[in-house]
Amino acid sequence: MVTNKKDIRALTKDQLRDFFVAQGDKAFRGNQVYEWLWQKSAHSFEAMTNISKDTRDLLDTHFVINHIEVDTMQRSNDGTIKNAVKLHDGLIVESVLIPTPTRTTACVSSQVGCSLDCKFCATARLKRMRNLNPDEIYDQVVAIDRESKTYFNRPLSNIVFMGMGEPLMNYNNVIKAIDKITSDEGLGMSPKRITLSTSGVPKMIKKMADDGVKFNLAVSLHSAVDEVRTSIMPFNETFPLEDLREALEYWYAKTKRKVSYEYVVWRGINDSQKDIDAFVKFCKYVPCKVNIIEYNPIDDGEFQQASNEALENYIKTLEANRIVVNVRRSRGKDIDAACGQLANKS
Ligand code: SAH
Fold this sequence. Notes:
The chain is an alpha/beta fold. It folds into two domains: 6-64, DNA polymerase, domain 1, CATH 1.10.150; 69-335, TIM Barrel, CATH 3.20.20. 34% of the residues lie in helices and 18% in strands. The chain has a ten-stranded mixed β-sheet, with helices on one face. A two-stranded parallel ribbon has the order 1-2. Strands 7-8 form a two-stranded antiparallel ribbon. Helix 6 (202-211) packs parallel to helix 8 (241-255). The protein is elongated and about 70 Å long. The site of S-adenosyl-L-homocysteine has 16 residues, from strand 10.
């Protein structure tokens, strides 16, 4: 339904308080409504039971509450859950709940489609339709928190911005969403449990450092050789490794927090000794840890997971250089919920 009413969740708390004052009501009413909108995730004014009927009707004539709807939920045989989430304008994004024995992680999207063009990622094949609003990012987290409580009897413990989209190309909205997620007026989660993953936009990495953000930074590196990286992540031409390095040094100098590098090893692409040596060298620029990710095939074989020997070689060389390496097995592959597979297939 097309409406000219304003989305009430685009208002700050102060704007909501001002609205009530202008209507001859108390500013405090704004706090009550704000709590319903965020902490209690109300989807209708009717649900706001401590607000009078007259006030609810007033809100209804001025505003709508845009909210997401979990359109379909798929469960993998490893416990992973994938939500196809419908936005107020009918577009779809995906988010994933990844359970382990000790934690539940939400993998959330920041854009509909993606503005970047990584050759190995299914999301890159969807063109970027639009950025997600802060409430649309927040709502994905709320939906997964609820599913975690329903299916695993525990609240969500971690969030990674590794779903669809490049979060640093939608920086302002991502930051607003994280502010709500970490605020006591939202979900009250610790920023230490949140990781933003980026393909590496140097200018924005520096901005995050300047802004004093408290969450963790992961960079999808995949190669420390410019020609190789540009061939698989073409935007590397615009943001070459030297600029990325400089931005990461700036990040570390300001935040004193380690960077995580996400890295997939592909046969014939980045599995030679030269690739390994370049990566080890890159890892020495700032304190870091490495996550080697299993490749999730999305095509007919242009990209293939490297041999075990090549992987072992990477791990051995990194460890010999005292770099912490985790090898992350894919989750939710059977429902196309693994890294790089989010493409609204259904
Ligand atoms: N744009 C952000 C976040 C989304 S991608 C970024 O680039 O970090 C999330 C992670 O999945 C990234 O590390 C990305 O490189 C990785 N990825 C993408 N396609 C993949 C695939 N087919 N198999 C394994 N990992 C993939």
